[in-house]
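hey so u asked for the seq, here:
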Amino acid sequence: MKFQFWGAAKEVTGSRHLIEVNGKRILLDCGMFQGNRKEAEAKNKDFGFDPKTIDAVILSHAHIDHSGGLPLLVKQGFKGPIYSTFATRDLCNYMLMDSAYIQEKDAEYINKKRMKNPDFKQEDLITPLYGVEDAKQTLFQFFGIGYETAFVIGDGIICSFYNAGHILGSALIHLLIKDQKTGKTFRVGYTGDLGRKNLPILKDPTPMPPTEYLLIESTYGNRFHESMLDVGSQLKEIVNRVAGRGGKIIVPAFSVERTQEMVYHLNVLWQNEEIPDIPIFVDSPLSVNISEVFINHPECFDKEVYDEFINNRKNPFGFGRLQYIHSVDESKALNGLNGPAIIISSSGMCENGRILHHLKNNIEDSRNLVLIVGYMAQNTLGRRILEKQPVVKIFDQEYRLKAEVAVMNAFSGHADRSDLLDFITNVKDLKKVFLVHGEESQGLSLKDFLNESGIKDVETPSLGETFYVEEDSKPE
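ran it, structure tokens below
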């Protein structure tokens, strides 16, 4: 058996991990790399392997940096099944279509602007990685599976999903593999993105079953999150302060989970009359659909949310001052808002979608505030705003960053160093750990920390690196 790492290796986005065993090639996630446009285009187009040779994809969750490469994989010849939880499948029904649509529209918008340049050349035009028709075909290849239900991937390969606690439907992937040539058995675990305990809305992560070879994220391998207990008071202070000066709060947020968490906390503050009665907008058609998916999967909710909202027939993602924006005209109308307001919009890393228009129209006003509530990968607009660079480029034009920037790390859905260490040290029979989905500095720091904690066989794979593990496997 061998592992190859074709994405999220010493970087965060674009997860693609390939396992070869028993003549099968199984891809764990097929994500989209997010970052500098030219770099992202090059990395997303080159899988490092022939999609036609992949037998199956096992998808950990619906975030685009884990699922967004699937339509391109299909476009380039992948014909096999895509296994996921039911909730992940339902989320991808919207997210992959939305990804394709946004790519088509952003390319159209940018190309129109570039064609007006007197120095325009045909090679300046950009093309989307895939289109809506590719996304539609991809959705036909999904197979939904419940948590803790074993299913067969191929001869000698059995898979089970366990709750990862990261977003709705997120799964830990556990593989029980019998090598048909040697008779040896392997137990392989992959976390996808590992969630945190005590987050609102979702159940806590499930412990990983006994595992010899563990692939685990390291996004926050050298960082610690603020307590979720402080979220309400921090959000209350920000909203009251910015509203008091007549400013707007612009929140780049992932359509899945982070938007729902923001709405949930604002709902609580509004119901308790702890924030002023200002308009709150969710400007993302995708978020509207995603919130409907949430309501249809209460089995993923923690007991508190289930009891408070589901049993009482209340919608946790809708309340008096909240308005979901659907049409483009409604979105454009927000540009003319006078007075304080909160605008939550995708995408979470500010690389595409309606958030770009809101930033363009509000970032140069010092009364306003950009609220960062999620991870911002290197070379993204979101990271440049997080770093408070004085000038940022939006749609190829430069804007001065005069708005205040605030960061709330407590919202993160990723495990921090303490969560990762707790999870890893509780995996029984562990032989080897592969740290993926983390910037190199985060992975190396976590590796050193694990070594000091007694876990010695830890790797931080490079892009395209191959590892063979047959000699380490125990006999059946």
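Residues 228-411 form a domain with the Rossmann fold fold (CATH 3.40.50.10890). Residues 86-115 form the longest helix (30 residues).
lmk if thats what u needed
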